[in-house]
From TrEMBL:
Pfam families: Catalase, Catalase-rel. SMART domains: Catalase. Belongs to the catalase family. This is Catalase. The lineage of its organism: Bacteria, Bacillati, Bacillota, Bacilli, Bacillales. Its cofactor is heme.
């Protein structure tokens, strides 16, 4: 029998390619997981020079204004004074397409925000959906490979897309959103944005809570049907880019209102599912939305390349009062995004004007390609030192948290991939359900293996029997025995 073991790049067999190595079931992820690090690092270097994901995008400058003081939850200075405005930059993007691809494809939209706060830059790098397809970063390179081009034909591969999704049932909720009307926003202005992950907020007393971000468009939700989206893709592939630029140019500034959900720390241990699982949403009945402020985009870039293309965002760019959670997908992104920027733009990407903090930068990083500033001049370049150089600030230490358990590759203990997808289906009107089923049937029809189709039909059926049956009927197949 042929040995077909998956191996690392140095030829060693891989024991677990589905779950990162963590300290106990909840983590955090361990840096000793060299397979994860190598996999993510190699993935970041697979395209030159455009972004591996989110290559096609549009951006704009604006400001964030606080409308509700939430200092009891976070000490982040830019959130603590009603009426305070913080300058910011936003970039919206498709996920899978190349730099020259169409804006109106069915795809999630990236929703990346950079806040130039007095305590340093804070980046919130999310999507226009509150969830994602997978929940462990070790699966991300494989997932994106399925969205890219086949290595032989150089064509998109429905076989790869649906094979991966059918073997990754945690994707079902996001797949249902993607194939719904919201899979193709009418414009970048007419969609919500989400931080997607769970984050930690810490107040001035060191008390912490878990938090999720929701940016609600004040323009209202509008979507494109499949036929119009296809026509626009042919007639004007830059439709969303053009719309955003023209709206701002004409003074029709798009606005989003930020709300958050707040969960007490202890609730994470008793909630009905793992709140760090990014394939799940928290019930707003359990954790209602709390208003924070408004994001207004009011200025177009002067130069696309200098500002939009060279903009770099990392979910690891935190400010005091905002910290990471044990979300495994987030933990992987904390490494992968910064690493991608160091490769794509350079080690000094944060010194470029679009990325440079408005706060004073005072560190010992020196040299590297394309250093655009004075490289620290003749200042002290190490720490600790006896010459008045930069020193650490213990009061800004992240809040300590307990970890326990054996170091192991452990899956999330929540296996219900179906309830929330089923709830979403049942919330849709009959017309919306019909379009959802039609979109899925159209996307799955080219798949050449009935085995893959049947496996995916089974997932839809588990979410809702009607959902699965209608897709089976549309494909001329049956619901497999479960």
């Amino acid at each position: 029998m042929t040995n077909n073991n998956l191996t690392t790049s140095w030829g060693a067999p891989v024991g677990d390619n589905q779950n990162s190595l963590t300290a106990g079931p909840r983590g955090p992820v361990l840096i000793q997981d060299v397979h994860l690090l190598e996999k993510l690092a190699h993935f970041n270097r697979e395209r030159v020079p455009e972004r591996v994901v989110h290559a096609k995008g549009a951006g704009a400058h604006g400001y964030f204004e606080v409308t509700n003081d939430l200092s009891k939850y976070t000490k982040a200075a830019f959130l603590n004074t009603v009426g305070k405005r913080t300058p910011m930059f936003a970039r919206f993007s498709t996920v899978a397409g190349e730099l020259g691809s169409s804006d109106t494809v069915r795809d999630p939209r990236g929703f990346a925000l950079k806040f130039y706060t007095e305590e340093g830059n804070y980046d919130l790098v999310g999507n226009n959906t509150p969830i994602f397809f997978i929940r462990d970063a070790i699966k991300f390179p494989d997932f994106i490979h399925t969205q890219k081009r086949h290595p032989q034909t150089h064509l998109k591969s429905p076989n790869a897309v649906w094979d991966f999704w059918s073997l990754s049932p945690e994707s079902l909720h996001q797949v249902s959103i993607l194939m719904s009307d919201r899979g193709i926003p009418a414009t970048l202005r007419h969609m919500h944005g989400f931080g997607s992950h769970t984050f930690k907020w810490v107040n001035a007393e060191g008390q912490a809570v878990w938090v999720k971000y929701h940016f609600k468009t004040e323009q209202g939700i509008k979507n494109l049907n499949t036929e119009l989206a296809a026509k626009l893709a042919a007639d004007n592939p830059d439709y969303h880019t053009e719309d955003l630029f023209n709206a701002i140019d004409q003074g029709d500034f798009p606005v989003w209102k930020l709300h958050v959900q707040i969960m007490p720390l202890a609730d994470a241990n008793t909630y009905r599912f793992d709140p760090f699982d990014v394939t799940k949403v928290w019930s707003q009945k359990d954790y209602p939305l709390i208003e924070v402020g408004r994001m207004v985009l009011d200025r177009n870039p002067d130069n696309y390349f200098a500002e939009v293309e060279q903009a770099t965002f990392s979910p690891g760019s935190f400010v005091p009062g905002v910290e990471a959670s044990p979300d495994k997908m987030l933990q992987g992104r904390l490494f992968a995004y910064g690493d991608a920027h160091r490769y794509r733009v350079g080690a000094n990407h944060n010194a470029l004007p679009i990325n440079c903090p408005h706060a004073k930068v005072n560190n010992n990083q020196r040299d590297g390609l394309m250093r655009p500033d004075n490289n620290g001049g003749g200042s002290v370049y190490y720490e600790p030192n006896s010459y008045g150089g930069a020193t650490e600030s213990p009061k800004h230490q992240p809040v300590a948290f307990e970890v326990s358990g054996q170091a192991d590759s452990v899956a999330y203990d929540e296996a219900d991939h179906y309830s929330q997808a089923g709830d979403l289906y049942r919330l849709l009107s009959e017309d919306e359900r019909t379009r959802l089923v039609q979109n899925i049937v159209g996307a799955m029809t080219p798949v050449d293996k009935d085995e893959i189709k049947l496996r995916q039909i089974g997932h839809f059926y588990k979410a809702d029997p009607e959902y699965g049956q209608r897709i089976a009927d549309g494909l001329g197949l049956y619901v497999p025995e479960l």
